[in-house]
Amino acid sequence: MEIPARHRGRRAFAGAGVLLALATALLAGGTAHAAPAAVDRTAERSGADTGPPAAEPRDRTRVTAAVLDLDGTGREPTVYGDDVTYDTASIIKVDILATLLLQAQDAGRHLTAKERAHAEPMIRRSDNAAANALWREIGRAPGLEAANKRLGLTETKGGSGTRWGLTRTTASDQIRLLRAVFATGGTSDASAGGLNKESRTYVRTLMADVASEQAWGVSAAAGSGWALKNGWLQRSTSGLWDVNSVGRIVVDGHRYLVAVLSDGSTSMKDGVALVEGAARAALTSASGQ
Question: Which of 124, 185, 195, 229 is buried most deeply by CB count within 10 Å?
Answer without folding.
Answer: 229
